Amino acid sequence: MQSDDLAVRAAAAERWDNLTKPPGSLGRLEELVIEYAAMRGETMPGIERRSIYVFCGDHGVTAEGVSAWPSEVTAHMVRNFLRGGAAVSVLGRQLGIDVVVVDAGVAADPIAGTLDRRVRRGTANFAVEPAMTRAEAEMAIAHGRALAAEANAQIAGLGEMGIGNTTAASALVAVFTGLAPAECIGTGAGVDAAGLARKQSVVERALALHRPVGADPIGALAAVGGLEIAMMAGFVMGCAARRLPVMVDGFITTAAVLAAIAMEPAVRGNLLFAHCSAEKAHRAVLGYLQARPLLDLSMRLGEGSGAALGIGLLTQAVGLYRDMATFADLR
After folding, report:
1. Looking at 30, 35, 136, 303, which residue is catalytic?
2. pTM of this prediction exceeds 0.70
3. Catalytic residue at 31?
4. How far apart are CA 272 and CA 48, in angstroms?
5. Which of 66, 70, 266 is nearest to 171 (CA)?
6. Which of 94, 139, 202, 276 has a Cα-to-Cα distance from 220 of 20 to 30 A?
């Protein structure tokens, strides 16, 4: 940690202690603002400009029957985001957060209103061949970095949409954490017991086929990842480069974070974790990252819905920090 960050932390803690309340009485809210201030490098950080980036892409592995929903639902949900009918869209309106929809690789014609950064129309079926080429993974990462450089925000939420992406995320989690595939597989968007068994079999076969390793994160993304996951990894790294804090959503976004940290370990210090989802392995991954989520609401929707709630909580905490009176003001 840089000395100036330590100075910001100390100054922020001192301000909290001088506000009209008992020291430490706002608990995690105080810690949250101190973290945010240090990430921004500002003793009195603002949070007026709030955005969530929803990265969307399709997955060829859905051909293996790993999802309760057909791949076509990805494009339908992209249109739903743009019409304002999705959960993250509603939360964005309620909380004053801009929702930016990024097409990383939807298997449909381009959809007006998205930021079109598609690398290809969905990944290949990684049960039988790599999800993408190494060059495609690198291109997705580069697009993510560029989007971070252009972001007009003081906090950026990380969200995703892509039928089949919990299977890709589970495979990546196994690669980067060393957890057994059986420990990484959850129900995703609602598969039954047979679907769960198929997912586990597909991930085990894919890992045996491609043998990805955490020491080669780009190779792992290319082998068993997703275009939206690779782009999120690039976005996380790009945000860290400009001290734009990232509010991480659920299981799939956390898998992207694992890839980003494998490439650039310092990005870990630029991340806030919104919630612990109901997806089976998310709690274990948060533990692996030594991350303390803000909320635990048994959510498993994705989209950035948890990130929206986390940003809302952070906004309220920053408001308290900035606007409460000090004891000196009472004299």
Report:
1. 303
2. yes
3. no
4. 17
5. 66
6. 276
